[in-house]
Amino acid sequence: MNAWHRMSITTRITVFTATAATVLCTLLAATVMMSIHRFATGDLVAELAAGGGRMAYKVENDGWSTPLVEHDGRSMQVVGPTGAVATSTPPLQGKPAMASFTPHGQEIAMGEVCGGVFPPGQCELVVTQSADRAGQNWAIYTSLPSIPWYVEPWLAATVIGGAALLALAVTGLGRGIAIASLRPVTAIRSELDQITETCPERRVSQPRSQDEIRELADSVNQTLARLQAAMEQQRTFTTDASHELRTPIAAMRAEVEDALYAPEDTSVQGVGNAILPSLDRLETIVGDLLTIARQQKEDVQGEHEPIDLSELVTTECGRREESGNRFEYALEPGVMVMGNRPRLARLLSNLLDNAERHANHTIALHVRRSPCAKRDLQRFPHGVATLEVTDDGPGIDRNKRELVFQRFARLDSARGRHAGGTGLGLPIARQIAEAHGGSLRIEDSTQGARLVLRLPLA
Hints:
Blueprint: H1 2-6, H2 9-60, E1 75-79, E2 85-88, E3 109-114, E4 123-133, E5 136-145, H3 153-194, H4 212-261, H5 268-297, E6 305-308, H6 309-318, E7 326-331, E8 336-339, H7 341-358, E9 362-370, E10 384-391, H8 413-418, H9 425-435, E11 439-443, E12 450-456
Parallel strand pairs: 7-9
Antiparallel strand pairs: 1-2, 1-5, 3-4, 4-5, 6-8, 9-10, 10-12, 11-12
Helix pairs in contact: 2-3, 4-5, 5-9, 6-7, 7-9
């Protein structure tokens, strides 16, 4: 089995085709030879029966002579009712009956006899039939050499040679089909070997045929497209992260350099107070990056527990009573979801942080059960738990609603950086929602931004 698996697919197909072709062609040759042998034997029996029939007519009408005339190597005996040989062809003169079987009524009997009255090693096909002479049954035995299995040497050579050529032709055809079928796979493999990270925009060529090879090429191209998108996202993320980290680092460096150049004009306390906001921002960015990396690595499946969404909202908002914003609630009790409590708390915290940065005075929270559309029955089999967080701020343009879910994205630099945002809160929130089988989107609102979280009901 190991040797079989070490072979190439072309070799395996060739070996299988050769084996199958050899077996089938052997069976075909054997069937042809058997059919020809059967036909030739039937023709020989008919010839012997005709000759014996003519002799029986002569016996019944006293027209036979002694000895009988031999025709083309055919042997014949006339056996009386007592079993004694009355007459025969010259080679069998004085010998007993060539066979012991006798016909039944008007039917003929036949069989193959080897040796006996015949030379050693010679087999004869014997046909016997009865003749009515003076009210007694006489037997006429007629024989000719048996036909061998190969009938004629030239015929056997022709059939066997033809079967061998047919097996070779089928094997060659199978190998050619295998090579032709796998040629596109070889081309795809060669192109993949040439595609590196320096040219992710390249795609493998698609064969013209609408078969599994084309489906393979489509899958490879889709994989390359996803790989290119992931690489571009990684480059963008690296660039954005570097830019975000450079800003607080540059601010801290500037404060330290100022203190070093003019130590008499500053103090340790002043430098510390100037650096601390940048350190806070740096810590926030690093923490968010670690959160994203941790969520991508860990699997939240198996860590779920029943969570009352309304109770989670009440607990989280209770910690923000001194934020200066007014909270309005419309919480339906008993809206239970299955989830990871720390991560759902982080999701809600990020939504509230976003709302507090942009709200003028009021933040509204709405928790309810919602019916599930037919197309989402598999995703939400027991219904939908909906959480809405709405602020009374300037809102978000419709064409920029997906932009805010991109990492480090801000609608304007002053709005996010002045308020301390890193541009990672909403992407983290959406990542948590999708990990719990839900969704997070921005939907229409009469005033401000309205973020809608949908999770499967427990």
